[in-house]
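During the second half of the funding period, the structural biology subgroup turned its attention to how the target accommodates small molecules. The most pressing case was FE3-S4 cluster, which had performed well in the primary screen but for which no bound structure existed. We therefore specified the complex as follows and requested a full 3D prediction, including the ligand pose.
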Amino acid sequence: MEPELTKKERCMLNGECGEGKRQAMEILFALAKIYGAKNMVPITSAQISGVSYKTIGDAGLEYLEDLARKGTKVEVPAYLNPIGMDAQGWEEMKVPKDFAQKQFAILNAYTSMGANPTCTCTPYLIGVRPKVGEHIAWAESSAVVFANSVLGARTNREGGPSALCAAICGVTPNYGMHLDENRVADLVVDVKVALPDRSDFGVLGAIAGGIARGRAVAFKGIKKADEDMLKYLGAAMAAFGSNSLFFMEGITPEWKIRDGAEKISVDKPEMGRMRKTLDETKEEDIVTTGCPHASLAEIKEIAEMVRGKKLKKPLWVCVSRIVKEVAAKQGLVEIIEKAGGKLVADTCMVVSPMEEMGYKSTGVNSAKAVKYLPTMCQQRVHFAKLKDLVEFEGAGKEKVRKK
Ligand code: F3S
């Protein structure tokens, strides 16, 4: 059966609302048919991936410029994922000039359609926090898990083009995570180990995601988890298992388990084995953190860690521009820069051309970054807790660890 369309949606599909909207609705209508959606659902925001020149290349740029030339505009607030460079510090980052030019052209195309150049994978850290039950169309996989699981909003894991089409039309096909019947866990994970560090949540996410393979997961046994920990967990689950939703007993707003759901437990030895698997090398040219983009709380911790010291290796803290500006006002950027680190805004270690900047190995505390750095940036990866990655002049890692 064909999805039912409202008068306005039909107008968009017929081309009466402009060529850009016609193209966008045609894609949404096709997706609705493929996934058996009965109708479209209005959304309150879109978050669009595929913004880095590195990931979409010339073909993506041409597609966006064509849509922009047709006068296409977004219907709802639309936020952009990270681009391939710091828009204000790309020369200092040694990003090739031709890359930067193409990257700015992509940004121009999006902003001329009305998208907000937030350039972050953590819109929820800059005030974009849809409420429980609110329908949205977000594309960045880690943000999708966070929105569904931690905020209780409803979004499928959109691709860059489908999120853009949803932004242009203000609706998305009503299937999957938008429906009550799919927001049920099929895998229960009893966590029998303490998770004191954010990277531990990434390790758990890699284990649970790999087993769940897209099924929603219900976690038991975790006493305390702040939003940053949940951010690292969801990002790893999305990277290792294409997950879009988890529940955590007593912590997340939803909790529903299907009768007959699979039950497993995760203990200390299993966590240790996964940690070893993720850690490929003990050496790195650069240490990067902020995958997903760092919160103000993380930046404060880093500033405390490096205050008055000199870093042995470059340190990137990947962050949204808005959070960087707040951190700068609080003097945190200055502390980190004095130590030799950088708050790199608008981009991240994965979507920037790190391999072209001369880096061959990267230290990270994010399991998601471990998954993508080898393939997208040809990096060897040292995975560890941040405090064990950061080294200072005149002090080895051991000395720092004992502090
Ligand atoms: Fe964000 Fe880049 Fe990680 S987009 S989730 S920091 S790979």
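Two results from this model are relevant to the next phase. DSSP finds 15 helices and 14 strands in the chain. The two ends are 64 Å apart (CA to CA).
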